[in-house]
Amino acid sequence: MSALVCQKGVATLVEVRRPAELVRHGVIAGVVAGITLVAEEMVATVLLGGNASDPFRLVASVVFGRQALSREFAISIPLLVGTAAHLLLSVLFGLVFVLLVAGAYQLSARVPLLLLYGVLYGLALWEINVLTVLHLLFPQLAPLMRLDNQIWNGIVSYAIFYGLVLGAYIAFARPGGVAEWKRKAR
């Protein structure tokens, strides 16, 4: 939030950021965007010829190895592990986004700019998570990240269905407060 403060004909925008409120909104934003992302991942996977459980199996394979990708591996474990890991990371990344926006004094930015920040953040997450961390820490899973599935299950998913949703949440919720700055005249 911002306030317009006038002093001797000079106006200043002032943003107040309350840590507890930022954390709360970061968690909510992460959950909302995370649920949106996983729903899109499931739909995109099915439309690309896969199974709706494949995104959960992929996340679980980070913990259990390639065996979690097998249909013989009980689906309850990948659903539980995949959901927990996905929501935990979504909350963490949502919190980081809110703190970055607040740290840059952009909580009161115009809606299109907040949406752009979200899209760029989503693209950066995809780049870091899928193209860097996954390849470095889990090279056995890297061959599964082909360009044909990373257009919809990667770039579009992270930019639109995660990042854009984060930006939209911040634009809607406007975490923070309005400062009441009044200086005494000299």
SSE arrangement, N to C: EEHHHHHE
Distance from first to last alpha carbon:
28 Å
Radius of gyration: 20 Å
Structural class: mainly alpha
Count of helical stretches: 5
Write down how many β-strands occur, each being a DSSP E stretch of 2 or more residues.
Answer: 3
Largest sheet: 3 strands, antiparallel
Strand coverage percent: 5-15%
- Percent of residues in helices comes to 55-70%
The coarse overall form would be elongated
Number of domains: 1
Average pLDDT across residues?
86
Across the major sheet, the strand order is 1-2-3
Low-confidence stretches: 180-184
Protein described:
- The chain has 186 residues and is mainly alpha-helical.
- It has one domain (27-174).
- Helix content is 66%, strand content 8%.
- It has 5 helices and 3 strands.
- It has helices at 19-47, 54-64, 76-103, 111-137, 147-173; strands at residues 2-7, 10-16, 177-178.
- The chain has a 3-stranded antiparallel β-sheet, with no helix packed on it.
- Helix 4 packs across helix 5.
- It is elongated.
- The two termini are 28 Å apart.
Please name the defining characteristics of this protein:
186 residues; 5 helices; 66% helix; three-stranded antiparallel β-sheet; disordered C terminus; mainly alpha
Care to give the gist of this entry?
66% of the residues lie in helices and 8% in strands. It has 186 residues and is mainly α.
